[in-house]
Each structure stands twice: as structure tokens, then as C-alpha cells.
Amino acid sequence: MREMKMQILKLTTNKYLSLVTIIGIVSFITFNHFSLHSKYEWLIIFVLAGAILLLNHYPILLPPKGNSLSMDSSIFLASLFLFGLDLTLGVLLINSILFAFTQRKIVWWKHVFNFSIYSLMIVCAYYAFIFTGGQIGFVQLNNSIPYLLSLSIYFAINVLLISVYFIIAAAESLVTVFKGIIKETIATYISSLMLSLVLVILMNKEEIFGLTLFTCIAFLLSLAFKQHFHLFKEISEKANKDFLTGLNNHGYFKEILEKEVSAAKENDEPLSIAILDIDDFKKYNDLYGHIQGDQLLQEFGALLKAEADEANYIVARYGGEEFAIAMPNTNRKAAYSFMNEFRKKANDTYYSGVERLPYGCFSFSCGIAECEKETYSISELLNKADQAMYAGKNQGKNLVQIYNANSQYTVQNSVCLEKETEEAEYQLKIFLSKDVYTYRHSKRVYQYAVNFSRMLQLSDYERKTLILGALVHDIGKIEIPREILTKKGKLDEHEWEMMKKHVTYGKEIVSTNKKLEDLIPLVELHHERYDGKGYPYGLAGKSIPKLARILCIMDSFDAMTTERPYQKTKTFQEAIMELRECAGKQFDPQFIEPFITMIKELEDLGEELEKELVTVNS
User: Fold this and answer.
1) Cis-peptide, bond into residue 146, ω within 30° of zero
2) How does strand 400-402 pair with strand 364-370?
3) Quick check: 439 and 492 in contact, CB under 8 A?
4) Beta strand residue intervals within 308-416, DSSP E
5) Cβ 62 vs Cβ 227: under 8 Å
6) Under 8 Å CB-to-CB from 488, ≥6 apart: which residues?
7) Are 211 and 203 contacting, i.e. CB atoms less than 8 angstroms apart?
8) Do 431 and 438 form a contact (C-beta atoms < 8 A)?
9) Are 13 and 164 in contact (CB under 8 A)?
């Protein structure tokens, strides 16, 4: 199926490239009068084409990404303003032939496609210039509209043609592609306009001298910027590298991982990370000193990098004797296989003095975690790998462990649930002085979480997180004005926008308490909808963390079934109907029926208790 999809995309892109090429060549033939040029004009054509060729070979490199500012568009536009369409198309033709001859490694159809795009850009820019009152051969700096519009059309045609190609080839959204291209190129094109006007002024009286002067200045700028770019790159690399091992450092690894996680989620591809810790490294340092310990880190780092590079993985020194590896396009099983093979290789590699360590050889413990759609942040992913790594340590070291949410190691060394609930409830009691409704609502949702987490048979870690998250999920409403919280009647647009900010305020409040860090996804994302129409980010489906999807159901059910200043209360039966109607829209459908079953059980239990109470009283 995937191969068929790739073939369809390839066929579509080929048709698009062919269509643009044909239109470009037809435009070149149709709008070119092929008038006879004088010897001087031919000299100008070859000089301009040669200048473009030279400056394309020496572009101005711009930090930080190494984008380049080529002068070809500046020269084409200046030629258009000074000499008109025919001569400029002649420059394009000669330049394209010379470029194809010097760059024979590039496939021929790419040269033709490039020529076609430039033909369309130049023709459209010319007629935009003429129709707005621009005069060929005269510098009209007091009337900038023709120049600005000409460049805008030139820029727009380029962006449109390139964007459509990427939309077809990569199946990306129109908005995403346009944003990306405009962000990357708008500064370059504005610079092209300024430089084209500079060149027009220089060439206005002395064409050859002006062009020569412009080319020399551009060439010198290219050399200067090249040196500046390489210096910038060198300093950046030093800032991003660990001084001892030469590997990526902790901060830069997290930057890379952020991008890899976003890409993996967007493209629905697997991504795993591994954190490994050298076993008994402190003992090694105590035996041989820190200098030899540093030597061990360097040698092991070199071995790890060699293996990671071969597999196209990203490796970093995470801190002390800890290392981290990001493994794109790799699921947890493949990651486990890779790390286990590497562990054996490390065991068999001799490092000076390791024979005196407990295993009699070099060893490390490793934890692996795989990124999932609902992974909230890289911190969560790293934390899972870290927990799995310590599980390996606790089981005797020299082991590779895959993170398992159902394992008890996720709650080892944590404060007991009762104590953490007590602390969370203490924060919640602030509501008693401001909004008793929110306090009571949070307590009811908390009770739903206690019961529902048992029914779903969540792991101890998930159960604890859901219960505590239910208790403090609306903590951000502390920052919402009292008159909005207690307003009777529908909130206006401004008030509703203010109310929606409570999830962001809540995240900020919870972030200040390290013990409550795991609750951030629930506090921030419990108003996201399964269909992507929620807030604050418009996440959809399983890109919303599982516990946040569960909390959304409990929170909404309680909101529907209890008195609120701005909404009439629904009965349990009406609320259950609403849940079923919104399954797959607002709510994750897999949790709706289990939750309804729990609600009915609680209702039945309540009725039984009421009957018993009546019997006792009578």
C-alpha cells in the first residue's frame, strides 16, 4: 500500500514538473521577440551571464542555518529594469547553457525545469513593472511602486511553484509549506530587490564598469561572509559539544530530540531513546583517579559514537558517566536489540583497569523508551528511559531494560499516594475562599478518578497521576477574576478567552512544584478534544496523552451533572446520552462505555444505600 502511494506521488510530481517546464518554455518563446542584438548588447548579455555564473559559485552564506544569498535574481531584475525583456531572457538562456555545461553532474531535466521557472518569473515581473508605469532604461527612484510590485510578483511566482511541488511531493499542508518557504526566503528576496536597485544605479551610466564593481563587491562579501559563517559554525559546534568526549552535550541533545520527536509524531514513524550509565564508575575513579576515569569516558564515548554513526543514531554525553542515544525510525524492540549487542561488545572491549570492577570487565546499564503519539514532552520520554535504566541497575547491572508502564519501578522511591494527595488538596483549598464550586467540582472529579482508575486497571504510576491530576486540574482558575468564575449567564467572547487561559495558568502553577511535574499534561490538556477542536493546542486523537483523554470525560461529566452559574444541570441519563453522542468527537470512544458502566454501578450502589437507610430509619 505504501509503495503504491509512493508511486502515485512520484507520478503526480513528474506530471507537475513536466507541466511547469512546458509552460515556462512556451512563455520564453511567446514573449521573446528574438530581436537582433547589436554587438554591444551581446557583450552586455555575456557579461551579465558570466557575472551570474561567478556569483552563483560564490554565494553569500548566512548564519545560523547556512542559507545562501545568491545575486542571480538581483542581476536578472536589474537587467529587466535597464534593458527590457528580450535582453534579459537572452541573459537567462546563455547563463542556463553555461551553468548546464559547468554542472554536468546535475540531471538534465533539472536544468530545464530551473530555466522554465526563471522564464515565468522574469516574464511576469516584466509585465508587472510595465503595467504599473515602470520605464525601461530610466531610474525612477521617486516612484518605487513598479519596482516593489515587480519584485513581489517575481517572489510570489517562485514561492507558488516551489510550494506546489512540496505539497505534492511531501503531502504536506498548504499553510505549513507556505509558512516554511516564506520564513526562509523573504529576507533573501527583499535583499535581492535592494541589491538590484543598487546595481541599476551603478549601471545606469557605465554598464560594464558598474556591473564589474558590483560583482567585485559581491565576491568580496561572499569571501567575508564565508569566513564569518565558518567561524560561527566553529563556535556553535564548541557550544554544542561536550569538551571531554567531543559528543553532543546535554542541552544540544535535548534540542535535537525535540525536533526528532516532532518529526516522528508528524510522520507517524517510530523513535526510541536510550539512556545508559557506566556501572561502578565511582569505584573506578576511586581506584585509578579522575584522569584515568576521564580517559575511560573518552574511549567509551568514541566506541559509542562509532556504533551510533553506523546506524545513523544521535549520541550525547548526558552528564557524568551517563550517555544518551536518539534512535529515529527505530521501535523499542529494534532499539533493545541494538543496545544489547552494543552492551556485549562493550563487555568484550578491554579498558585499562576494568578487571578490578565487580564484573571483571567494562559494563553499563541501559533504559529504553519509545516515543508514542500521546507522549507529552521530551522530559517525559527521557524520564521513562531513566526509570528503565535504574530498574536495570536495581536488578544487578549490566542489563538493558525497556520501559514498561505496568512495572512497579515507576513508583519506587516516590512519596506514598496518600501523602501526595494531602499536599495537592492543601493547594486546592485556596479555592474555598474564592470559588467553592470549583473546589467541590475538583473533589468530585477526584473521586471519579479513584474509582475509574481501578476499573481500567491502570498501573500504580498511572493511577497515582490520574488521581492527583483530577484533584488539581483546575488549579489555574485561581488566576481567573472572581466575577468571571461566578458570572450567571453566558460568558462573552473576551471572558471566554480569559477563562480558557486557566489551563496555561495551571501549568505554570504546577510547574513550580517538582513533585507535581507528572501532572502537567493533565492540567494543561484536559480541555483538548479527540476531534482536534479543543484548546490550548488543538491536539487530536492519540496525540493527546491517555490520562488527559480520560480526565476530559470525567471533568465534562461532572460539569454537565452539577449546578453551574451559566448552564442548566443535566440528569445522569442526559449526560450519559451526551457522552455517547460526543464519542469520537469530544471524547476518546474507547473510555466512554467503561465510564458509563462505572457511573451506573455508582448509581445502583447509591440507590441500595438509600434503601438501606430508609429501612434503618423505619
Assistant:
1) no
2) parallel
3) no
4) 314-319, 322-328, 364-370, 400-402
5) no
6) 565, 566
7) yes
8) yes
9) no
% of the chain at pLDDT higher than 70: 81
How far is residue 2's CA from residue 358's CA, in Å, rounded to a whole number? Answer: 50
Left, alpha or beta for 319 (phi > 0: left; psi -120 to 50: alpha)?
left
Residue closest to 475 by CA, chosen among 503, 512, 441? 503
Kind and range of the H or E run holding 62 = strand 60-62
Helices 493-500 and 502-511: crossing angle in degrees, nearest 10, is 20
pLDDT tens, position by position, 435-451: 677 777 888 888 888 88
State the pTM of this model: 0.55
Residue 330 Rama label (left phi>0; alpha psi -120 to 50; beta): beta
- CA separation (Å) from 590 to 170, 530, 584? 32, 11, 9
Place of cell 553499563: 364
Partner residues linked to 273 by β-bridges = 326, 369
Cell readout for 61 is 552564506
What DSSP state is assigned to residue 564? B
Q: In the chain, what is the straight-line distance between the N-terminal and C-terminal CA atoms, in Å?
A: 71
Query: Which residues, listed in sequence order, are joined to residue 364 by a DSSP beta bridge?
Result: 278
Q: How many residues does the chain have?
A: 618
DSSP summary character for residue 579: H
What mean pLDDT, rounded, does the chain reach?
81
* Nine-digit cell string for 28: 520564453
Q: Cell digits for 605?
A: 450502589
- CA-to-CA distance for 429 and 406, rounded, in angstroms? 32
